Prior knowledge:
This protein is an alpha/beta fold. The chain has one domain: Rossmann fold (3-Layer(aba) Sandwich), CATH 3.40.50. The chain is built from 9 helices and 10 strands. An 8-stranded mixed sheet has the order 1-2-4-3-5-6-9-10, with helices on both faces. A two-stranded antiparallel ribbon has the order 7-8. A hairpin with a 2-residue loop joins strand 7 and strand 8. Helix 2 packs across helix 3. The longest helix is centred in the last third of the chain and has 16 residues. The radius of gyration is 18 Å and the shape is globular. Pfam families: DUF1749.
Amino acid sequence: xxxxxxxxxxxxxxxxxxxxxxxxxxxxxxxxxxxxxxxxxxxxxxxxxxxxxxxxxxxxxxxxxxxxxxxxxxxxxxxxxxxxxxxxxxxxxxxxxxxxxxxxxxxxxxxxxxxxxxxxxxxxxxxxxxxxxxxxxxxxxxxxxxxxxxxxxxxxxxxxxxxxxxxxxxxxxxxxxxxxxxxxxxxxxxxxxxxxxxxxxxxxxxxxxxxxxxxxxxxxxxxxxxxxxxxxxxxxxxxxxxxxxxxxxxxxxxxxxx
Length: 258
């Protein structure tokens, strides 16, 4: 464990000495070594002499109190902490970790983005679509009710208005993957021309739109590929992680330094 931030944030690492670092960024409410397949990714990195890093961000556990900007600032701080010893980074995002990565690159919070060789975006889903279709169709209309409140609770989670709007209102900062967004939104997701690898789960419980439609949207993103893990759920349980690790091995071998 290392402390990498002035906010006393820690990162878990396998302590391998390597010029290539694999950074795993988890989703909302995930702590270190979650989801469980992150442990398998760590073991893969150890076996292949790659540095594995998984940071804790300010948004854990109260993600509703922190905008994406805080995650991006924390990730930038982490990269700068490791810059003296690392020549290239491979970023893996799970769930909202995907939005964290894209926001980091779009906002230019890290000034050496050329060291980020590829981004593997596993389980990119739309929080807004899931909330509107499966939980509360009127969620977007709650903004007026919550406006003016410093902190409020929604479904047991404390929120500030900025993060609530980001997650549950169309075109919010978190709203990157909804299929009702204009095609141009997807064409603009990768302004730094980093290699993106979208990994979708065939049976993701948080996906509410046809997988074929989602694939077509992601194919609009420049410099990207789309891979579907058959039969997989959101967190790659029940053996699906092995398929992901095989895919990860193929991708990493394209970029890692000898």
